[in-house]
Amino acid sequence: MRTIGAALLVVLIFAVLAFLSPKYLFYADVPQKSDAIVLFLGNEFKERKSETIKLMEEGYASYFVIPAYGRIVETQHHEAASKRAVASRPSRYPGAYEDTHVEIIEAKRLMDSKGLKSAIFVSSPYHMRRIKIIADSVFPKETYRTLFVPTRFEKKGSGLWFRNEQETKKVLSEYGKIAWFMIYSRVM
Q: What is the set of domains in the chain, with CATH numbers?
């Protein structure tokens, strides 16, 4: 009888964790005045850019950074940051790095070039935990303040994410990328 009870408990714990797993990914801070807003590329770029523009209009930062384009500009010139820009992986980073990791390293390099010490990172709700994990490894807490604000213009998943193929792919992909970062960051 104890074995059946233990098995049921394990199944129940697994079911609860599976049901709640997207909530772990949906990390969010309350925006605060910062030196820069960092925008990440991706399929939901339009929604992410809308959030970034909203934050700039609300006066949250003086600089706008698109690390994938290698661009940093004052917020009033944000239009110029994405005009005729082509995303490229800077050759100074080894091939083992995942794109988001490269963008965060590039954001730090760009911020350091202007002496900036605080940033708001903007991306999709599903990506925020991974961005936080990577940024925490790149930006020392003693020197930098980082905040993570998901776009409000992209729909967050429902409670029954595992019944939606698109949401299931997003959740599993994010957990896979987090695991990959944890592995290669320890090895590299």
A: 23-187 (3.40.50)
